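Why should sequence recovery work at all? Because a backbone constrains its sequence more than one might expect. Tight turns favour small or flexible residues, buried strands favour hydrophobic ones, and helices have their own preferences. The token representation captures these environments compactly. In the example below, the structure is given first.
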């Protein structure tokens, strides 16, 4: 298999397979595009320059949000918790009865190969499996083959300065979808619930939204899990509030226990949030993001607190450790 460490001085091969084998769903080759400079995107086993990476408008991922996905990060040449993300992807697919046409091992290799093709060591990876091309009805049986897409890019949710100060969050009116609906427990392409929450926070001038569940308990952010610290103890809401069981959430719970903090999973009320000593979001994109204001109530002393800082330091230390993921250029 072709493997090239981007740190080496040799030039990457620019002869991509896609030129001679165009995407069957794609019908436009733009003029004046420098294909050599564009990131390569994986679609169904082939690599396409970003401007040519297209899928059919009849794909049910677009028409109905029928599909599943993962957001994954690579740090210093190691894809953080890749196996865990792949397991969650296949679990999400199982829950919606979507047969992914690759084994887990093949999927892991496809992710690693996409990073190698783009000579990346640090990246935000978006892995998407849609129901595939069907007709305009919503019956998934009409979709014969799922579409698999892997994008290797970068993401910054908040500037370093914003993160350093802590963000301002707002409890929004949009309730987390309950567990007997298409809730975030399954990481599907249905994110309108989160997007509505984000819109509310945006228009009110806050950095991020916090969603309550249908009973009024705190669930999570729009793409992040939430922790509070009270009297040195970490508290995070349970999955019964319809949240996505985050991989970063699990990592933080384990790190916190290692550092000697007690971690409790229990219902959290808005009043618990307002009176917390510290609060922070966790997520692949958000990493650990301190929250210093919620609905205009200052959290603790209005700065990222000592427990949050300890966890941020401990988290930073494990990134890039081959024991915490899968090396790209092994
Ligand atoms: N909740 C939601 C709704 C999300 O989309 C995400 C991001 N995947 C998270 C929580 C955090 O999960 P993770 O730590 O696995 O990225």
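From this structural description, the recovered sequence reads:
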């Amino acid at each position: 298999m072709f493997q090239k460490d981007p740190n080496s001085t040799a030039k990457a091969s620019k002869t991509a397979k896609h030129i001679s084998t165009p995407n069957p769903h794609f019908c436009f080759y733009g003029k004046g595009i420098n294909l050599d400079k564009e990131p390569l995107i994986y679609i169904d086993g082939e690599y396409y320059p970003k401007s040519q990476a297209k899928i059919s408008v009849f794909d049910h991922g677009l028409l109905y949000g029928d599909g599943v996905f993962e957001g994954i990060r690579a740090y210093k040449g190691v894809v953080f918790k890749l196996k865990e993300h792949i397991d969650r992807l296949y679990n999400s697919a199982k829950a919606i009865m979507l047969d992914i046409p690759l084994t887990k091992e093949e999927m892991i290799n496809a992710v690693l190969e996409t990073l190698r093709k783009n000579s990346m060591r640090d990246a935000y990876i978006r892995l998407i499996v849609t129901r595939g091309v069907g007709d305009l009805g919503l019956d998934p049986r009409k979709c014969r083959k799922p579409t698999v897409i892997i994008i290797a890019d970068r993401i910054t949710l908040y500037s370093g300065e914003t993160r350093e100060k802590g963000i301002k969050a707002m409890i929004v009116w949009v309730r987390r979808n309950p567990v007997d609906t298409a809730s975030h427990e399954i990481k599907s392409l249905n994110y309108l619930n989160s997007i509505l929450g984000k819109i509310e926070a945006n228009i009110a001038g806050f950095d991020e939204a916090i969603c309550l569940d249908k009973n009024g308990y705190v669930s999570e952010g729009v793409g992040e899990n939430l922790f509070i610290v009270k009297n040195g103890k970490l508290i995070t809401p349970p999955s019964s509030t319809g949240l996505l069981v985050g991989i970063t959430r699990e990592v933080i719970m384990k790190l916190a226990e290692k550092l000697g903090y007690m971690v409790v999973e229990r219902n959290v009320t808005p009043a618990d949030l307002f009176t917390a000593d510290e609060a922070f979001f966790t997520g692949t994109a958000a990493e650990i993001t301190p929250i210093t204001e919620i609905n205009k109530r200052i959290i603790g002393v209005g700065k990222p607190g000592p427990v949050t800082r300890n966890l941020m330091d401990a988290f930073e230390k494990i990134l890039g450790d081959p024991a915490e993921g899968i090396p790209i250029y092994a």
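A few observations help interpret the result. The two ends are 12 Å apart (CA to CA).
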